[in-house]
Each structure stands twice: as structure tokens, then as C-alpha cells.
């Protein structure tokens, strides 16, 4: 029996789930092992990180799932979280169904779910992992985030100029775009962070179920999700232009406002990622510089 399956069975037994059946499911993302354990109606899904060095997200996922269900977004119930042999894990209900087929209808549903999730605001129990390094108040954190980036974009000795991340003219463009965002009336809430048809499970007996809260965070939620959708499109080719229109319609968002704000938001986020990599993850510096260069090329 493969080690991931053995571990998942031990986790399941710890929480009272017995049965000989245990099967690892592949193709559901690269971050976690996903193992179905148990028999018939008692089957559960055990998830745990492939890389033990990464921060645990299962407590955050449980909080997001509970709050999203309350907001009217169908999602798999998180039955338990914990640590075994130094490995963090989550146990959730197994929802019978199949991943949604890509197309405007599925993306409109994702947009509607996103709008409901974006209205979720933090409470005192919200895990710290859902917040940025700038604090637990999403609005204040965003303005601090913006001020940090504007300050770095005025450095006399700018290391990103020496690295070739941008030219002097491009830095001025990013700075002007960032400054304009100070006057944008963002709505702050919870972003799912990984909206895609692979995380939308179609059932025969109810509305589609949204899965996988491991990338969720608080902030200018619509724009965080739109950037995540751009990354999804770069990887899978979806959402297409038609599917993106369906998502925006489902979210009841204003496309003309998005067209104005998103390019500036993208530049600030890409710039911030380079600064973060420079300070905390130098192994990701080249990757983040490439992302910033790609964002500048879109202007």
C-alpha cells in the first residue's frame, strides 16, 4: 500500500472512519495528497500537503467552508483538521459528483458564488493565514500595502532597476498607476483564490459544490480573484473571453470599472511579489521578475 494511502487510513481511523477501501485520487491539484477512505456512505476525503515545509491551510479552509456555507455557497463540509506525525491534515465529506465542464454556464455559476464569498468579512476567529503581512483589517491592510509599494517605487537606490525588473520610465508608470488606486472605492472581503471548473463539482441532486479553499485570503476580493483567473487562463486556456464575460455577469460586476482598475491592480501586485521574493523568497525572484515583466508587456 503506498505511503500516502497508509497515512490517510490512519487519519481516518483516528476520526472513527473504518473500512478497507482507500484510494489516492490524482489530478486534483499539486499541493495536496487526496485520498478517499472508507466504505459506501461513510467514505471521507483525507487531504494533506505533499510538502511538509509549507504552512498548514486546513484550519483556514475549515473556517472558509463554514462561512461560505452560511453565505449560501454549497461546499464540502470539513469534518476534522489536525496533525499526525508532524503532518497537518484535513478530513472532509465526500461529495458525489463530477467536475463541471468548462463553458459559460459553469463560469457564470462561479461568478455568482464569488459574489457571495466576497461579502464575507473577517471575525475574531478568522485564522491569521487568511490575512496579508499588513494586518487583519482588510481595508487598512490594503492601504498599508499600497503605501509600502509606493514608497519602494521612490527609492533613490532601487535594486529592481539594477536587476532589470523595469526601466526608469516603467517604474514611473507603475508608481502613477499605484497612486491612482488610492482613490478607488474597493470592496473588501474574502477571495476564494482558485476559482475554476476543476473545483466546481456537479451533483445530480443539488446545485454545484465549490471545493478547495487553500488559496483563500482577505482583501479587494473581486480583483484578487480576477488575477487568479488570469493565472488559470495562462495555465489551462480558461476562462476564455466568453467565459470571463459570463463570470463577470454572474458576479454582477461592472466590466468598464474592471477594465480601468485591473491593469493598475495587476502591476501593483506583481511589483509587490518581486519585493516579497527579494526579502523572503530569493528562490522565487526570477519567477516574480518575469511576472512583472509580463504585466508591463500587457500595458
From TrEMBL:
Coiled-coil blocks? none
Q: Name one Pfam family in it.
A: APH
Q: Where do the TM regions start and end?
A: none
Residues annotated as signal peptide: none
Please list the residue ranges annotated as the Aminoglycoside phosphotransferase domain.
Answer: 29-223
Cross-referenced InterPro entries: AGP_Transferase, Aminoglycoside_PTrfase, Kinase-like_dom_sf
The reply on keyword Kinase is: yes
Any single GO molecular-function term of the entry would be: kinase activity
Annotated keywords: Kinase, Transferase
Which Gene3D superfamilies would you find in this protein's record?
Answer: 3.90.1200.10
Q: What is this protein called?
A: Ser/Thr protein kinase RdoA (MazF antagonist)
Q: Which organism is it from?
A: Salana multivorans
Amino acid at each position: 500500500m503506498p505511503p500516502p494511502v497508509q497515512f490517510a487510513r490512519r487519519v481516518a481511523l483516528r476520526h472513527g472512519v473504518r473500512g478497507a477501501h482507500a484510494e489516492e485520487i490524482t489530478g486534483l491539484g499539486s499541493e495536496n495528497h487526496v485520498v478517499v477512505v472508507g466504505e459506501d456512505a461513510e467514505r471521507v476525503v483525507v487531504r494533506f500537503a505533499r510538502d511538509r515545509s509549507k504552512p498548514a491551510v486546513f484550519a483556514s479552509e475549515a473556517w472558509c467552508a463554514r462561512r461560505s456555507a452560511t453565505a449560501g455557497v454549497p461546499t464540502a463540509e470539513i469534518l476534522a483538521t489536525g496533525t499526525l506525525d508532524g503532518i497537518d491534515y484535513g478530513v472532509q465529506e465526500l461529495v458525489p459528483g463530477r467536475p463541471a465542464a468548462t463553458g459559460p454556464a459553469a463560469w457564470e455559476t462561479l461568478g455568482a458564488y464569488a459574489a457571495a464569498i466576497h461579502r464575507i468579512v473577517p471575525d475574531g476567529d478568522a485564522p491569521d493565514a487568511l490575512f496579508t503581512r499588513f494586518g487583519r483589517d482588510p481595508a487598512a491592510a490594503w492601504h498599508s500595502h499600497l503605501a509600502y509599494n509606493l514608497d519602494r517605487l521612490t527609492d533613490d537606490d532601487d535594486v529592481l532597476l539594477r536587476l532589470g525588473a523595469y526601466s526608469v520610465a516603467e517604474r514611473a508608470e507603475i508608481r502613477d498607476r499605484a497612486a491612482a488606486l488610492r482613490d478607488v472605492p474597493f470592496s473588501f472581503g474574502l477571495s476564494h483564490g482558485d476559482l475554476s471548473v476543476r473545483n466546481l463539482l456537479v451533483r445530480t441532486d443539488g446545485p454545484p459544490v465549490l471545493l478547495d479553499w487553500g488559496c483563500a485570503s482577505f482583501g479587494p476580493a473581486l480583483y484578487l480573484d480576477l488575477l487568479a483567473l488570469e493565472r488559470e487562463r495562462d495555465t489551462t486556456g480558461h476562462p476564455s473571453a466568453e467565459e470571463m464575460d459570463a463570470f463577470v455577469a454572474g458576479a454582477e460586476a461592472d466590466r468598464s470599472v474592471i477594465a480601468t482598475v485591473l491593469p493598475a491592480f495587476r502591476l501593483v501586485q506583481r511589483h509587490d511579489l518581486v519585493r516579497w521574493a527579494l526579502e523572503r523568497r530569493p528562490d522565487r525572484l526570477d519567477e516574480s521578475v518575469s511576472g512583472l515583466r509580463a504585466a508591463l508587456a500587457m500595458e
